[in-house]
Amino acid sequence: MNRRAAILTALLLAGCAPSAPVEAPAPAPTAAANADTVRAVSPPATYPTTPPRPGPAPTVRVPAPVRRTLPNGLTVLYVQRTELPTVQATLVTRGGQTDDPAERPGLASFTANMLDEGAGGKNALELADALDALGATLVTGASWDAAQVSLYSLRSRLPQALGLMADVVVRPDFPANEVARIRDQTVTELTRARDNPGVVASRAFPALVYGSRHPYGRLASTAGVRGLDRQALSSFHRRFYRPGSSTLVLVGDVDPATVHPLVERAFGSWAAGTAPGLPTLAAPTVAGTRIYLIDKPGAAQSEIRIGHPGVARSHPDYFPLVVLNTLLGGSFTSRLNQNLREAHGYTYGAGSSFAMRRGAGPFTASAAVVTAKTDSALIEFFRELNRIRSEPVPAEELERAKNFLALGLPRQIETNASLAGTLADLAVHGLDASFYDTYVQRIMAVTPDDVRRVANQHVRPGQAVVVVVGDRSVIQPGIQAAGIAAVELREIGEFVQ
User: In this model, does residue 19 exceed pLDDT 50?
Assistant: First the structure.
């Protein structure tokens, strides 16, 4: 019996173990005893009735990393934290979803997901066993702007773990049998997506905002995925996974003097080179607001997405926009959530976001609402989108939002993994750790006038795409009667194929 089977057997046997004998319930307390209990726990007259006010936002500094560069062009950042004998290594490179070929959307994510399915001559199981033997974990994936490989390891096992990480990044084998297996799984997931209104809405929204000519609007399809093969993955990997376009961040028990030679040994053979130039990501203009209704008969909820192209990560309004979004839909106490969830009970949660990428990612307001209140929820969405533009933000509400952001900054650098991810994200967008030296001050400096200005500039309810996925027979009459915008019917098959 192998080790995994033994663990599974032990867990199954533990689950089947006889339960402890059930004891007889204690006698119910008498009324007199209950009264004594109530008197005993009654709060004193001086018990506080208001929450304490938060203190001033602390000064938080992201540790300045030690920067080294390998001869092949790979940038390496070291942040030494010796509290634990562990290391988090995160490598980012080109090969994000924006780099998908126009005729093959989904190739970037497929390639990233296949990296650890066989590399350096080890098949998927051998690679997984080698990581398990080291007590290490390795995760691969792709965002819009980058492909990423993350490794967690004990410091004592770092030389071997870095070797395995380098195999995955530099020498993936893309075995044909594993490509076929992951391809079949992906096709199955896409087929199942037709039954998930949330997935349908999240695919339809960017497709309708950006269109198929823009990288953000292209959708992977079952036919396209079936056409992916080992040759396509290998070609994409050779083109975009290049050391001159990559950054490796190591956080933890990493003295650069002793760890850098290990990095050179692991990644030094990666052939020098850089990825092609970045694609043009000019955002389209939404002429006017239109509601796209996608029928999902019998749906218990309606999925709503409202928005338009937003701004790039490099936009100078970054800080007031972050504060604006926190007020509008970026926290539990935001206006959208308080309105649609707390005041009206239409949803379990409503929110908004600015997806700030290398290009202008979408501004989105969204929720899953009870079917019978779809039209009412749309009215409240637009009420809040217009109110944030037209009314000054009260000082107390603004202060609460700014404190939420400033006091939340330490979470972004609290663990080795979160700090490595933060530094890697800065590297992807051409920023360094000093960005956060003034983060709190710039957040706290945002004024009501700043919020109103960026709201009027970057939140455009009169130029929005509105996607509603739900039971058309129930929701269409109310949506049309609400008079928000013209309604156009679309089919699920247009967005999930």
Answer: no
- C-alpha 125 chain-centroid distance: 28
351 touches 365 (CB < 8 A): yes
Q: Where are the domains of the chain?
A: 66-267, 290-494
CATH topology classification for 66-267: Cytochrome Bc1 Complex; Chain A, domain 1 (3.30.830)
8 Å CB contact between 308 and 485? no
Map tokens 């994000």 to a residue: 96
Q: Are 481 and 291 a contacting pair, CB within 8 Å?
A: no
Please provide the CATH number assigned to the domain covering 290-494.
Answer: 3.30.830.10
What CA–CA distance (Å, rounded) separates 165 from 160?
A: 9
* CA–CA separation, 392 and 394 (whole Å): 6
Same topology between domain 66-267 and domain 290-494? yes
Tokens 């867990």 appear where? Answer: 11
Structure tokens at 359: 């290009």
Q: Which pLDDT value is given to residue 181?
A: 93
Q: What is the pLDDT of residue 12?
A: 33
Q: How many helices (H) and strands (E) does the chain have?
A: 18, 14
Across the chain, which distance is largest between two alpha carbons, in Å? 82
| Residue 51: per-residue pLDDT | 77
Phi first, then psi: give them for residue 93, nearest 5 degrees: -150, 175
pLDDT tens digits, one per residue of 73-130: 999 999 999 999 999 999 999 999 999 999 999 999 999 999 999 999 999 999 999 9
Angstrom distance (rounded) from CA 162 to CA 172: 14
Q: What's the pLDDT tens digit per position in 47-63?
A: 778 877 777 777 777 88
Spatial CB neighbours of 489, under 8 Å, sequence gap ≥ 6: 292, 293, 294, 295, 472
